[in-house]
Design brief:
Layout (H helix, E strand, L loop, with lengths): L1 E3 L41 E6 L15 E7 L7 H7 L3 H9 L5 E10 L8 E11 L2 E10 L4 E11 L5
Parallel strand pairs: 1-4
Antiparallel strand pairs: 2-3, 3-5, 4-7, 5-6, 6-7
Amino acid sequence: MNAALGQRPIAGSGEWDTPPQVPRPEDCPARTSRWELRDTIMERMDIRLAQGTQWDDLAGNPSAEGRSALWVRVPDLAVSAATLAVLGDYVPFGISQSQGRWMPSNSLDNTIRVQRLVPTEWVLCDVRIDGIHDGFGHGDVYLWSSDGTLLATASQSAVLHNPRT
């Protein structure tokens, strides 16, 4: 994990990207899991599928844009750099979404770049897969507050594995 965060009293600010247009969290289905989750951070998260396909519905149709999105909240944790680092770890999810099939992968690295922390109950994880080739995938996760503030960006590389049945 690498991190770029902190504050310096320098004039000038701005945001030039925008979040994807997706339904609000309460209008999105809960994301299904491929496994029973016990004693992991995943069981503490409320995850809603905002753009993409549930695991059981992946039918082998690759995504035209390599983009998917999840609303995530961790009810007992405030939004912090540490929380955002965990939420920036969704490139492996996005790889499967981009390929339209379950494609197991493991993170090789994860760099979080904190833009601005603002209070928010839900964080929109806007997953953008840059490319997949020769057993490796690369992508970015833009983390947005529910009011559209860019909280952070994360970049990640992953090693792909052959799917098990």
